[in-house]
Amino acid sequence: MQILTKRSALIALWVALASLQPAAAAPDAMEQALSAYASGDLKAAARGFTALSARHLPLANYNLAMMHLRGELPRPSPREARRLLERAAAQGFVSAEYALGQLHEQGVLGKPDLRLAMRWFAAAAAHGSVDAQMAIATAYYLGRGAPANMTQAAHWYREAAKGGDVGAQYLLASMYETGLGLPTDLRLARYWYDIAARNGDEAAPAKRRELDERLSAGEPS
User: Fold this and answer.
1) Which residue, 8, 9, 106, 184, is most buried by CB atoms nearer than 10 A?
2) What distance lies between CA 32 and its chain's CA centroid?
3) Contact, 150 vs 175, CB < 8 A?
4) Number of neighbours of residue 74 by Cβ within 10 angstroms
């Protein structure tokens, strides 16, 4: 199960903490729990997150759920993780929405439920999660969890591309180049290949050169 690696989880925890309003976040207790987790003191981290979860703090619910899913508690329970994530998601916690999408997509509770995964990815995507935007775009592209819809795939790849996802930038360029889900537009294709290239995509520079040649030759854009 690849819900979150420990390193990426730590990053997510600190970013999420920084987004909370101090008056509502019990920052000292949360920082202590996060510090305990970062230092490998999982017992202290679990105690801290459990106490804060009882105060209905969405970040604490999310953190505790992640500890369940990563098997970092004495009696880890995917079902308890789902309950905690749903509590956090009900309070608008975007990382919880995305994690619920992964949970159902990967079949952590049993059989994968792609439709339910799609619902949670859609919620997180609408709330600005670039990872969720990629997930829902790919679901529409492949017809997984929803009927294939290239227009919707292009829409969400564009949102993820604007959010900095290099893979989305390349795929959006390709869709503009081929007219898949979008009107064919070689100039916009070249624009997004260029951004993907600048952000490190290895295939994009060759595509950028190819389009430069086609546009220089007078091919309609």
Assistant:
1) 9
2) 26
3) yes
4) 8
